[in-house]
User: What shape does this take?
Amino acid sequence: MDVLFLSRLQFALTVMFHYLFPPLSIGLGLHMVILEARYLLTRDPAYEQAARFWTKVFAVNFAVGVATGLVMEFEFGTNWATYSRYVGDVFGSALASEGIFAFFLESGFLAVLVFGWDRVKPRVHFFSTLMVFFGSTFSAVWIVIANSWMHTPAGFHIVGEGIHARAEITDFWAMVFNPSSMHRLGHVLLGSFLQGAFFVLSISAYYLLKQRHLEVARKSLKVALGIATVSSLAMLLSGHEQARALAHNQPAKLAAFEGHFETGEGGTGLYLFGSPNPQTKRVEYGVEIPKLLSVLVYSDPNKPVPGLDKIPADEQPPVQIPFQTYHIMISIGMYLIGLSLLSVFFALRKRLEQQRWLLKILVVSVVAPIIANQAGWVATEVGRQPWIVQGLLKTSQALSKTVQADQVLASILLFTFVYIGLFAVWVFVLHSKIQHGPAAVGGGHGDDGFLEVAGERVAREPETSLTSVPSIRVACADLTKEDAE
Amino acid sequence: MRRSHQGGRRVSELQVFWFAALGLLLTGYAILDGFDLGVGTLHLFAKSEFSEGSDDHGERRILLNAIGPLWDGNEVWLVTFGGALFAAFPRAYATALSGFYMPFMLLLVTLIGRAVAIEFRSKRPERWWRAYWDFSFSAASTLVTLIAGVAVGNAIKGIPIDAEGEYAGTLLTLLNPYALAVGAFAVVTSAMHGSIYLALKTEGALRKRVTGWMWTSFGLFLVAYIAVTILTLVSVPGALKNFERWPVAWVLVALNVLAIANIPRAIQQGRAGYAFISSSATIASLVFLFGMAMFPNLLHSSPMPENSLSIYNASSSETTLRLMRTVAFIGAPLILTYTTTVYWIFRGKTRIDDTSY
Assistant: This one.
């Protein structure tokens, strides 16, 4: 195995693992902002209880997201040193802006969000929640800008020759608003909102099925369903805009997404599924809707979309992976629209809680947006190959010259080992938080698994010191209340 | 490789500005993450909640919660240092990170391990679970400080760099006695700084034990400080060249000595706040001395000094440096505002409540 393959594998593994967490942080952040705003408006304690519960879940997720994000920042230098020298002037400024404008904001206010419930006034706390949400969103803004620049570079010129060539910034705002950054940003944020919303929907539906924490579950479900419906419908527009822009900016990628090998006469069709074969240059086992791609891209059923044959052979991306991941993403997008609308239909008729089958579907659908986000990332990044910066620098030229294959392999093994452990613990902690639910929130971070025991003990010996903690008293009262329901 | 149009005075001012800005970010990181890493190093010396005679929560929980709301924000200084180095001096960023490949991978894994240990320790009550995360937290904190210190030691001593600006040594080149000594110095410095921070955050029996830690770690710090100073003068010939150019820098050395001398005095008087200011000033002047030893180089090449990566041959273009300076001027007041706000909200002695770890 060569350094190029191993470095790409390492980057894919570390970024895909990292990308499980930030979208959830952004999505949950929006959810928490809405819940807490509603608490301030209504002063209904169920909203506060819900906001506190999701904050705890958020904190676990955020910690893993930050820890794995750190790896990404330094990997550009460790594994892609030539890339870093080549584009540091442009790309580095977006990355540094993330640190200065986003990272300090979110990690500063995160402390108040998580640890400040009883230290600051509700309004100040709400402000902190809002700032953490903004911080994680700004983070996405700068990262998406940096990434988009690699797809559609703008606002720079090349200085120097041969191996000493490098990109230098000429126009900061042209770099920021490069042709794909705004489309992409909308798409990524909507994907994040969906991941957060379906995460909340899943857990809330689970509680409704189990008849536990009903107040919090209903309130959370309502907010999340709103986010899910609006975002999934907006995603339709965003996806469409993306595809149109792609035809203009990166025709090779669009051709790979659609398995479109030969530019034909007249309108180009759209495959619903299939298996593109680069040898025969045909999509096998596929179902095609004639002329649809031309309609979607050009609003003209007879204008042909350029195929891979228009691209020089050494600049063609692989087809199978982008085709499949792109189609998985789109199918899941359609599924999420259907599921949201169906849930809204029952919710408006106040019959959602009776549809146990639908609640069960909501519980398992938590994985759908996660898969879609991952698939979308794979599609867009593999579809850009062989370029690391479209039209400027190939991935194979971007490696660190001093790094050996065995070092990269060793680091992959190291990260795999650590990440498997990390993932197991993350799932385990989330699971125990969900099992305990919002009532346990007041019982403290410190002592999960404690409250069930504590609840019994308090019931038997009301004078134990536990009840001197006000939140535990509240939590116990809630438990009894729910038992009564 | 350098561009001829980039020799003007304005550019060199910007390059010096960014050297100083990186120095400030490093100072912020060393002072702030310095104390929470130090608390991590000391963690196993505190009693767990399972020890005999400890209170309900155990001292280790107090230690964790003393840094609980702050460590994550402190680490952002490192992240931003990395981003700023990438943006302002991409060649140095690329050479350092690809050259120190395995140490950096180890550093990243340790930072992850530490974050996870802090977050997950409290999630289960079982003794084995907590003991495991206690050990991970302490080992990772110590290792992070050690690796950072070894990196600083190598930067001062110089590393082999070839004519293309690539690292030309091996992993073993980095594990030389001088760099390891600086690594050990970093560990005891942050332990001292962390123990003083804990004196501010604890009370009762634990506070008494913390006072003992302060004295021990101060003693170790003093020994290491003297040893590293002598080693530097003996084994790094160019370390003082900038003092010949700017003799006024000796004032900082004098202030450094005064700050160090004030630490035992403040501990003796029981004024942990003064001791903390003194140890922060000590760390700040140590970072300044590091900068004096390096300037104008970012990576000092030894034994081929002509291949060194300096702020002049490794920087980004004038446009980027100027742009990033604007970003820094907008960002810095914001960062200082929220850092101060958060430290203010979480001032006072650490108490375990229902939002604690």
About this structure: Residues 9-42 of chain B form the longest helix (34 residues). Residues 163 and 324 of chain B are 29 Å apart (CA to CA). Residues 1-6 of chain B have pLDDT under 50 and may be disordered.
